Amino acid sequence: MSVPEFSHAFREQLQDLFRWRRDVRHFNRDPVPEPVLDDLLRTACLAPSVGLSEPWRFVRVDDPGRRAAVREDFARCNARALADHMGADALNYARLKLAGLDDAPHHLAVLSHPDPTQGRGLGRGTMPQTTTWSTVMAIHTFWLAATAVGVGVGWVSIIDPERIKTVLDVDPALELVAYLCVGYPAQPASTPELERRGWERRAPERREWIQR
Amino acid sequence: MSVPEFSHAFREQLQDLFRWRRDVRHFNRDPVPEPVLDDLLRTACLAPSVGLSEPWRFVRVDDPGRRAAVREDFARCNARALADHMGADALNYARLKLAGLDDAPHHLAVLSHPDPTQGRGLGRGTMPQTTTWSTVMAIHTFWLAATAVGVGVGWVSIIDPERIKTVLDVDPALELVAYLCVGYPAQPASTPELERRGWERRAPERREWIQR
Questions:
Q1: Oxidoreductase as a keyword (chains A, B) (predicted)?
Q2: Cα(A199)–Cα(B7) distance, rounded to whole angstroms?
């Protein structure tokens, strides 16, 4: 197989993909066909991983009892962590995620093996976090591929990772990296919801090099 | 602006992009034009970030003295961390990175602010690592966009992050996430070099869901 040439048109659309990849909070409830989800998982596994260790573990959470327990944990963490020191404003933004948890037809937990035998340790001696970071890139790959087929992803991080691992009854040695809501978005948008609602804006100075 | 429709052809090419995004170890020495590098940085900043915090800091390392000090740190970490317990085999694979450090026309360090005021703390109360993970996704975005314009990226992780921060004279509060070699690849390939050379193979079971 020869090296693909990526055309100007492709690169323009790739920019659109990056621009339209959103953290989705509003889903319609139609399920995503299983073959589409399976394709997204296979694509996610093309992500880079340190030493080719593939430390990611993708969990489908379908059980209503487990989902309810996750929702409850989110509500507890959100109330406790935010109400005190961030104000009602933050509480409202974070609550948008609750709608996502309620409406998204699919819930995925993504975990990471902190010390996989696969990869034989290469490349992570001095920076062991690169293992977890590999899983983060698999999640990002899933997210981009999902966007390209019109599927939205919302990353829920206001949870107690240890509690969620118990709820999901997974190997306690694994690290919980993300809890994802997945489904067709109700409101596609090219601007982050946090920006549209005035929470925060992108900073132009981030787009400049620091020189050394 | 209306939601883009991503065509079947685009999605096929996106698969190619994921498949051909490699951890590049062999570069030719031709510099990448500055406007191309600037575009890649701007694209990287379209990555998701928790609370829209944009914690990434991209550093261009051009000074020959600093580059030599990084190379020296790599050689020391590689010798110490790997020779003992991983054998000559690992040492050889890791040494491929030395060629990358020597030949790549551009060196980028990517750092992350662990507690940015931007984003106002939203979403990282219980999982503060999501800040670093945002920077990891910016690196991955840079990597994919680079691949689309024929530019290769090699991630060097066999370094002492604290030492590198000193070499680069950056704010000690920042976290070093990656040291990247950037340039045109000498040998494009669709298979990871570690797989071609027999170090490790992808595991088919990673591409299956765990059900809960």
A1: yes
A2: 33
The single-letter code of the amino acid at A109 is A
**Record: contact B159-A53, CB cut-off 8 A:** no
Distance of CA B131 to the CA centre of its chain: 16
Which domains are present in chain A? 23-186 (3.40.109.10)
Residue A34: other Cβ atoms inside 10 A: 10
Rounded Cα–Cα distance for residues B181 and A189 (Å): 34
- The 3-class SS string of B17-47 reads HHHHCCECCCECCCCCCHHHHHHHHHHHCCC
In one letter, which amino acid is B174? L
Contacts of residue A109, Cβ cutoff 8 Å, sequence gap at least 6: A58, A59, A61, A164, A168, A170, A176, A178, A179, A180, B212
**How far is B108 from chain A, CA to nearest CA, in Å?**
9
| CA gap A178, A152 in Å, rounded | 15
The pLDDT-based confidence of B31 (bands split at 50, 70, 90) is very high
B210 closest CA partner among A170, A154, A36: A170
Closest approach of B168 to chain A, Cα-based (Å): 7
**pTM score:** 0.95
Q: Which member of B3, B155, B207 has the closest CB to residue A42?
A: B207
Tokens 């004279």, residue?
A: B169
A133-165: pLDDT as tens digits = 999 999 999 999 999 999 999 999 999 999 999
